[in-house]
Every structure is written in structure tokens, then in C-alpha cells.
Amino acid sequence: HGGIAGLRGTLDVLAAEFQRPVIVAEVAYPWKEDEQWTTRPNMNWPKTPEGQRQFLGEVTAAVRSVPGDLGRGVLYWHPEAVLTPGLNVWAGGSCALFNDQGEMLPGADFGRAPR
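Below the sequence we write its predicted C-alpha cells.
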């Protein structure tokens, strides 16, 4: 719920203090506008497929930069939460890694960035 600089600092402190691998779990970012995101802090990227990809790229880069090569991964929260008529879907599908037609968004490729 903080910015990328705060995330980097926290990961660095954890790695230095515990000398154990670290992961970022339950990360998500909207690919489309939804009323629940209008008042949230740290929504610094566009709420678009490209903004979602940029956010995930920065989170992944932060994990990969953890000292001692202790950054191990990023776990996305509800990538499959696609808007489905008649069902209550988390965040109305706004944070899924698939659009409303079930097609994969660019953000789904965030883990493939080169080291």
C-alpha cells in the first residue's frame, strides 16, 4: 500500500536483517477505472493495461534488486478475477491480468523481464 521506494527500502531491510529470500505477495493493480480506486493513495500509474504492466515491472525490478540476490518473486492477487455476469468478482475484475473478454493483458508477462 506504499510506493515503490518504500517497497525497495522494506525489502532491503528484510534481506539484511534476516538473510533469507523474500517475496512480495498479494500484489495487484487495476487495468481499468473503477470507483474503488478513486480515493486510494499510491495509484501512481495509469489505470490502463499499460499502467498495470508498468506497475508490475517496477515491483518486479524492486524484488530483483534485493541485495544478496535474495529477491525471489512476486505473487499476484487474483489474476483470474475476470468480470463475470451474475458473479461477485473481486474488484469488479479491474485488477485481473485478463480483460473482460478473458484475453491476457500485457501485465501478465511481468515475470519474464530479463535480470
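Strands lie at 22-27, 71-76.
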